[in-house]
Write a structure and sequence with these properties.
The complex is a heterodimer of chains A (about 375) and B (about 160).
Chain A lengths: L24 E5 L11 E7 L2 E8 L7 H6 L3 H11 L4 H16 L5 H29 L5 H20 L8 E2 L2 E2 L7 H23 L3 H7 L7 H7 L4 H4 L7 H4 L22 H26 L19 E9 L2 E9 L7 E5 L1 H7 L1 H4 L5 H10 L4 H5 L1
Antiparallel strand pairs in A: 1-2, 2-3, 4-5, 6-7, 7-8
Helix pairs in contact in A: 2-3, 3-4, 4-5, 4-11, 4-14, 5-6, 6-11
Chain B lengths: L6 H14 L22 E4 L9 H5 L5 E10 L9 E12 L8 H5 L5 E4 L13 E2 L1 H10 L14
Antiparallel strand pairs in B: 1-4, 2-3, 3-5
Classes of the chains: A alpha+beta (about 375), B alpha+beta (about 160).
């Protein structure tokens, strides 16, 4: 007789042997699956509807970004930095520029710093709006995404006018930004910020207190501060669990040091899916206020926006680590230079990679329908995980 | 926040109802062309007369999608008894838009203003080989390049 081997698990109710033992099912979600937005693969073991264990399997989109960085000169790196987290392109390229400037000991003109701060906050709004639209979509609410994209379009129009790109802005340069913004642009940004602020209550009112949305997200996927520390989680996901850490306040870079009065770090204490969503939602309002504060200062800050670079840019021998508070969390570049045109070693610390690892602890014990709700609320970009 | 049971749902429906009365933001794209800002990075055009075959663009391109061929020509001396001079002549200049990452480094580094961005974007092809635009096609794009916008008066003179 041929004996068939099956993975046998004992269900909760079967412990007393009065019922049939049940068989656990190993289920692969992804790499191609509509609810995983990207090629993240989850291997989960299910006991009925309940998740027994879960393992995120990453790397389907691994492009070897770190090694690609190491064969590009400091001007070309910015192109690649744009792309690992395609929703935070401006903040990513900013990190590279800051790292190289620090190694060179370069002074960045004041106007460039203020414009960078403004654009970084606009980029944060763009990123958050994307998730504010896509997260409800993943758990079945179709309408909010249209409102979110209406606002995104408004901000993107001004970003494109200045940078020429809608996603990969390529507006940072070592020593500043590419060029001065067009005449009248700051006025149009102010209008765009005002428009988005006036229309945000639409998106807010549609979803924040929607009973169905609350039922799907409140009390689901509770992340403890201990887990946040253990896994190195950062950004809005960490702040939703009460870990009040934000580089813009705690280790100010760019012009954030002078913006402390306008800077509001949004935190929650519960740590469930709904508080993660709320952190994102309220951070949009906070970033809109920051953008306005930057515009106020830009009206009086004059001067150049970049410095003239030598034809071949070589960072002196040494190393540096530059981290920034990206929309999704801490994003850091550790760059080692041996005095060449290219970095000798580049280590990329991306927010999503760390944030996603906690799924092995967060998912077991939850129901399968909640898995999608939890997965979506971790706010990640697959390119940022796989690098 | 939610006062009555179902209050959140009702608020959502009210927003939808209000939005129904508003003007739509839909852009009728193939029928109506979008208004793109002058800096929009759609396609790169080449002004052949300005190119000196210095190869900076091809070397600085992060994915090496610019192909340049050239030869040297000897020019007769400008004045009687002068020295003969050598001049680079461009034979081929092509950009492979299937590889291009639209970063604009080539346009930035060109020291003789031979490359320009134009907001044109409708050049998709059925055959990937057609995505390599040779210099005659690149010259056509140059004609669609808009003049750069004036800089913010708060900045240094551009």
């Amino acid at each position: 007789m041929v004996r068939e081997e099956v993975t046998v698990g004992v269900g909760d109710a079967a412990a007393g042997l009065h019922e049939f033992p049940t068989t656990d099912m190993t289920l692969n979600i992804g790499p191609q699956h509509p609810s995983t937005h990207g090629v993240l693969r989850l291997r989960i073991v299910l006991d009925g509807e309940r998740v027994v264990s879960a393992e995120p399997i990453v790397g389907y989109m691994h492009r070897g970004a770190e090694k690609l960085f190491e064969v590009r000169d400091y001007r070309q790196i910015i192109v690649l930095a744009n792309r690992h987290d395609w929703l935070s392109a401006f903040s990513n390229e900013l990190g590279v520029a800051l790292a190289v400037e620090r190694m060179l000991g370069m002074e960045v003109p004041e106007r460039a710093t203020w414009l960078r701060t403004l654009l970084a906050e606009l980029n944060r709004i763009l990123n958050h709006l994307m998730f504010l639209g896509s997260y409800p979509l993943e758990i079945g609410a179709i309408t909010p995404v249209f409102y979110a994209f209406r606002e995104r379009e408004t901000i993107q129009a001004v970003m494109e006018e200045a940078a020429g790109g809608r996603m990969h802005f390529m507006f940072n340069r070592v020593g500043g930004i590419k060029e001065e913004v067009p005449a009248g642009w700051t006025g149009r940004v102010r209008q765009a910020v005002a428009d988005v602020r006036s229309r945000m209550p639409d998106l807010d009112g549609l979803i924040r207190d929607n009973e169905i949305f609350l039922a799907r997200t409140r009390g689901i996927g509770v992340l403890t501060p201990e887990q946040v520390d253990a896994f190195g989680i950062s950004g809005p996901v960490a702040r939703a669990s009460g870990v009040d850490f934000d580089l813009r306040r705690d280790e100010p870079y760019l012009a954030y040091g002078e913006l402390q009065e306008s800077l509001r770090v949004v935190t929650r204490t519960v740590g469930d899916c709904h508080s993660r969503f709320e952190c994102l939602l309220d951070q949009v309002y906070a970033s809109l206020d920051l953008a306005d504060a930057c515009l106020d200062r830009l009206a009086s800050v004059t001067g150049p926006v970049n410095v003239r670079l030598p034809k071949t840019l070589k960072a002196p021998e040494g190393h540096t680590y530059a981290w920034t508070e990206n929309p999704l969390g801490l994003n850091g570049y550790f760059i080692v230079s041996r005095g060449e045109k290219t970095p000798w070693r580049c280590k990329l610390r991306s927010a999503s990679f760390n944030n996603i690892q906690v799924l092995t602890e967060l998912l077991p014990g939850t129901l399968l329908p909640d898995l999608v709700a939890i997965l979506g609320s971790m706010f990640f970009v697959v390119g940022d995980i796989d690098k | 926040m939610t006062d009555l049971p179902g209050g959140g749902l009702a608020r959502g429906l009210l927003i939808t109802l209000r939005t129904m009365g508003r003007r739509t933001g839909t852009q009728q794209y193939p029928d109506v062309q979008p208004a793109l800002p002058p800096r929009s990075r759609g396609v790169i055009g080449l002004l052949e007369e300005n190119c000196t075959v210095c190869m900076l663009c091809a070397r600085e391109c992060p994915d090496w999608c610019i192909y340049i061929d050239s030869h040297k020509e000897t020019q007769a001396p400008a004045v009687e008894g002068g020295r003969e001079r050598q001049r680079n002549v461009l034979d081929r200049f092509a950009i492979d838009y299937a590889l291009c990452m639209y970063c604009g480094i080539c346009v930035d580094v060109c020291p003789f203003d031979a490359l320009f961005w134009a907001p044109e974007f409708e050049y998709s092809e059925y055959d990937i080989r057609e995505m390599t635009h040779e210099k005659d096609r690149l010259a056509e794009w140059t004609r669609t390049a808009p003049p750069p916008p004036a800089h913010d008066p708060n900045g240094a003179a551009g």
